[in-house]
Amino acid sequence: MEIQVLFFGVLAEVTKTAFKHYRGVTSFEELKMRVGDDFPEIAHYNFRIAVNNELVNGDPLLKDGDEVAYMPPFAGG
Amino acid sequence: MEIQVLFFGVLAEVTKTAFKHYRGVTSFEELKMRVGDDFPEIAHYNFRIAVNNELVNGDPLLKDGDEVAYMPPFAGG
Amino acid sequence: MSHKILVNGPITQEIVSSIIAKLAEKKDAGGHSVFIGQVRADDFGARRVKAIEYSAYENMIEAEAGKIIKSLSEEFNDVKSIDILHSTGIVMAGEISLLVIVSAGHRHHAISACSKAVEMIKASLPVWKKEIYENNSAGWKENSLA
Amino acid sequence: MSHKILVNGPITQEIVSSIIAKLAEKKDAGGHSVFIGQVRADDFGARRVKAIEYSAYENMIEAEAGKIIKSLSEEFNDVKSIDILHSTGIVMAGEISLLVIVSAGHRHHAISACSKAVEMIKASLPVWKKEIYENNSAGWKENSLA
Q1: pLDDT (tens digit, 9 = 90+) per residue, A20-70?
Q2: Model ipTM value
Q3: Where are the domains of chain B?
Q4: Whether A77 and D59 lie within 8 Å, measured CB to CB
C-alpha cells in the first residue's frame, strides 16, 4: 500500500517536514514503526492519529492511498 | 407635597397620558387612592410602582418632588 | 457607572460595526461574547409582526443597566467591559433592538457574563413593547420569565 | 454540510461586519449569539505575546466543523444557522482569530448553542498554535480542556 503521512503543529517542526510518503506499507502497526524509526524525536510528544480525517483508536485497517495524520493536542478556538 | 406620577406601556395608553402632577399629597397610600380615582381603568392591569427609579414594596415615605412610576410587567430585551 | 443605554429607533449595522471595530483596542481581552436581539417576524396568521414599538423609563433604565454592569463586573472579575444598547421607538421586523457585548480575558467569563446580562436585562430593565401587525392592529407583550 | 471554516490571516472587521449585515435577512430569527475570539497580548514578562501562528488540518477541520454544526442543529431545533470561521497563519495580538455566530428563533437556543459550539471547537477542531513573543522567541500552546 501507499500511504501519505502528515505531521502537524510541533510534530511538523521537530520532524522538519509536513508529510512523508510511504510505499509498501503492510499494516498500520508496521507503518507506525517505520515512522518511529524515521522520526525518533516524535516519541517525546503527545499525539493522536487520524486516518482520512477520522481519529483512530487501536489499529485500523489501512487501504491503499489512505492519509494518516500525526496530531499534537489541539489548540484552536 | 408635590408628586409627579408617570404611566408606562399599556397604562399610558389606557390613562391616555404619560404623567400627571399631584399637589397636596399627604402619603403614598393617599396618592394611590387619588390615582385610582382619577384612572379607575388601571385596576384591570398588573403593575409595579417605582419611586425615584427604585421599585417599592409596601408603603414608602414620600417627600416633596418625588417621581412615582406606574409600570406594567417589563418586556425589554 | 454612567452608561448610555437607549438608542432611538433600530440599532443599525453602522452602530454594531463601530462597536465591533473598537474591540481590537482591548488587547488584554481574549474573547468577546455578543448578543444581538432582533425583532422576529412572528407569524400569527393575519397578525404577522411588522414592527415593535418600544417605550422605556429613561431615568430608571440607565440606573438599572448600571446595576447589572456593576453586579456582573463583581461576579466575573476577568470581565473587562460590558456594553448594553436597547432601542426605544419603532423597530421593524428584521432590525436589531438589543445589543450586549461583554469582553473578558478568558472566553468562559465573556460567555457566562453575556448570557446572564441578557437574562437580567429581560428581568429588570423598564422597557415595554407593543407589537404592530401587518393589518395595523397592535398588542402589548410581556416577558415571560421562565 | 459544506462549510468553509478557514480564513487565511486575521478575521478582519470587514469580514465580521459583512456577516453581521446579513443577519437582518433572517427575519424569522429573534436572537443571534456571537463569539469573537481575539489574540490576547498575554504578558509573561519579556515574553509578551506579539502574535499567534495558527496551522490547521484543512480537510479534517471542514469535516469536524460540519459535525459540530449538525450535532447542534439537531440538539437545538430552533437554531436557524451556525457559522464558524477560524484563522490560519499569522494573527497579531488584538486581531480576531475565531468567529462563531448562531441564529435562532429564541434567544435561549442561540446563546446555549453558541456557548456549546465554542467548547466543541476547542475540543475537536484540528488546529495548532504557536505563540510568537515580543523577543521573537516562540512556544507551542495546547488547549486545556477543563
Answers
A1: 999 999 999 999 999 999 999 999 999 999 999 999 988 999 999 999 999
A2: 0.91
A3: 2-71
A4: no
- Domain harbouring C59, CATH code: 3.90.1170.40
* Domain assignment of residue D130, yes or no: yes
Cα B77 to Cα A43, B9, C22, C27, C58: the distances in Å are 54, 15, 23, 29, 15
Q: Is residue C62 part of a domain?
A: yes
Rounded distance, CA D39 to CA D84, Å? Answer: 17
Closest residue in C to D112 (Cα–Cα): C115
pTM, rounded to two decimals? 0.92
Using a CB-CB cut-off of 8 Å, the residues of chain B touching C123 are: 74
Q: Please report whether residue D1 resides in a domain.
A: no
Residue D3: what pLDDT?
A: 58
Q: Give the SS3 label for residue C69.
A: helix
What would the CATH number be for the domain defined by A2-71?
3.10.20.30
Structural domain count, chain C: 1
d(CA C34, CA C114): 7
**Chain D closest-CA separation from residue A53 CA (Å):** 5
Q: Which of residues 4 through 23 in chain D touch C, CB cutoff 8 A? A: 13, 16-17, 20-21, 23
* Chain D residues lying within 8 Å of A70, measured CB to CB: none
